[in-house]
Write the structure tokens for this entry.
Amino acid sequence: MATSNNIIAGVMIAVILICVAAIVCLAVTTQPSESFSEFYLLGKGGRAADYPSQAISGQPVSIIVGIVNHEGRPSDYTVQIRENDAIIKSITVGKLNDGQKWEQPVEFTLKQSGEGRRVNLFLFKDNAAAPCIKDPLVLIMKVTEN
């Protein structure tokens, strides 16, 4: 009877050691499965609300732009602000390490007045010709004459 208890105990210890080794191996070798960049806007008070919806032609509009690198490696970022297809401002953010956040107030000026003026913000990474996030962040604004 003691011999069969010893065999069962030995098998259980071996199974536990194999499980612990597998968990350690997975923890050490597993890379995050998803790499991405966060790109966001904040309105008044640094909240995801109260975005500017009105502007005066020729007067600066202020927003807070944020980027967080989750790419698993350092990346260089640039933000382009466009009205229609025209670039009205380009911001060189520079290199962000993995996990690093950049959040800054940004001002831009709209020159044409009108209802429903569309302002698009595009994020570019590592000097690529195309934005790294397909869909831009969008502000729809009413711009009146000065």
